[in-house]
Amino acid sequence: MKKSTKYTLLAILTGGIVLSVGYLLTDATLTKKILSYYLIVDKFFMHPILPFYFRLLAMILLVCAIVFLYRDSTLLKKEIRHREQIEKESIEKGNELEKSLALSKATLEATADGILVVDANRKFAGHNKQFVEMWKVPPSILGPGNDEKAVNHILSQLKDPNEFIAGLERLYKAEPWAEHLDEILFKDGRIFERYTKPQMQGDEIIGRVFSFRDVTRRKEMEEQLMYQATHDSLTALANRVILLDRINQELKTSKRSKNIGAVLFFDLDQFKLVNDGLGHDIGDILLQAVARRLEHCIREQDTVARWGGDEFVILLTDLKHENEAIPVAIKCLKVLEESFVIDKHTLSITSSVGISFLPKDGKTTMTLLKNADSAMYYAKNEGRNNYKVYTQIMGAYTKKQLELTNELHEAVKSNQLMVYYQPLVDLRDGSITGAEALLRWNHPTLGFIAPQDFIPVAEDTGLILAMGEWVLRMACLQAKSWQEKGFPALTMAINLSGRQFKQKNIPEIVAKIIKETKIEAQYIELELTESVIMDNTQAFLEYMHELKAMGVKLVIDDFGTGYSSLSYLKRFPVDTLKIDLSFIAGIPGSKDDTAIVRAILAMAKQLHLDVVAEGIETENQLSFLTDNFCQRGQGFLFSEAVPSDEFTNLLKKNNFKSMFEHKDGKKVSVVKDTIQPSLVIS
Predict the structure, then answer these.
(1) Considering only CA atoms, which of 357, 484, 466 is closest in space to residue 413?
(2) Crossing angle for the helix pair 451-461 and 392-413, to the nearest 10 degrees
């Protein structure tokens, strides 16, 4: 019943009740008049047969009806309000559900993952757009009934479709309740991460949801980070991390088999000279070239790694005998001997190699490397460009070298070093025309240590730079001091090591010291070996011209033992050749040495170069040199290297002239070197 109808009926009944009560309580005439307007009920109420009780009953019934109708109306109103509330809630829930569905759909479409829903029959039940794009599935085959086409399209892209199918079968049959995460590899190199879990309705599995994420870029970055963590950034070789791991693995393998392994420790000889002379850019390119050559010397199963700086390590595995490692070491040394052409520079470099075998020479990785390193230093000490196999005596040698290095650092700090001077004599009249400054080390407990023992250590540690500059300054001060004391102006010959000369600022250093000591540049002779100036002719030619422009004289030391190229004598602005003592020792008895010395003297005369003969010990040698017009000489025949005060006494006596007044050709006794025996390291 409509709401308005119920209210009309209620109004009529209420009106009837009021009229009835009025009829009973008021004058009948008045009531009749009032009721006359209601034609329909007029006769009914005024009928003479209606007794009073009947009218009372009618009134009671009407009241009851009104009460019941009112109560029903109240309940009806409550029902209406309840239904309206239900309808409102239903609409709101419908809107919320619609919003939730829209949000879920938007979320699925907005995610970067591809989503696929499969029903209990393994049929496609739903997906998002990202799934279609990731798997490159044509929309035409995603409709109902095309599952087989879609699956075939997906499988055609995979690197191993059979493994993909087998994985799904295991998942559905063996682990239907499990969540699963794995990776899918594509033919084009892409990698998807797949996550799947069952779709549940109560306790029943009604399908499965798959989520696919493209992790190709992440995998590439992970691989790149792993590569960077295990490889040297400059040479792209394995670094310490992977080398140590592989040596450790080889140690474990050797315990289970009779095979052995070998660790070859390489150190490039005098590589620091390249960095100091040409710069680190050229040095880095050289290291890269060395790495490529070493890679071509090993098998695929072996490892070549950069240990650090100019040090490389090769691990040889699965060897039947120790001798199998020796040809590899020799091959590496030979390929490194071949010249490197870098940025128009032709560079020659060698290496020293130490070899240790596992498990014989070490039960741990670091012990094997330490022992190979010891053997390498032993090889370097015996002339470089060779290899040595580790023995126990080498460990002691390395320990002594380390001790010597530490002692040398202390010697520089505590002024244990000193400069001695050996006279340079004019071979025409015996007068002292100059001196060669020579570095000496007087250790407080070991006594005098020979230069050949500590100079290589100074070169390797870099101490030679500070030591060389100190010698240059002290020698210039001493030469100036002798001049100020009234002695004839002497030339001061000072050796420059290869590492010193390859400093880019060596001309500035020399100019600064000349200015500080106030000595004239014409009295300074800088001695360089052939091998040093030939390492980089263009760069060093510029340095030599700068020094020459100052007035400094340049001497080629140990001439005849290096390249001895006439072309560089023409190019380089040298003033003097110093004949190596190994040739002087052989004259006049050795025909070869005699011929070589005569050839050098003749060549120098034609090139207008001065000549100094070093290592003169006998009068026969002196006679030969004077007869062949050698200008200057030095050696034990005149004097050993002595401290400055003793050299001052030699200048005062100047008693060498008598040797040139009475030459009888007899062999004179050799003046013994008073320097204490050198430090012997075994």
Answers:
(1) 466
(2) 80
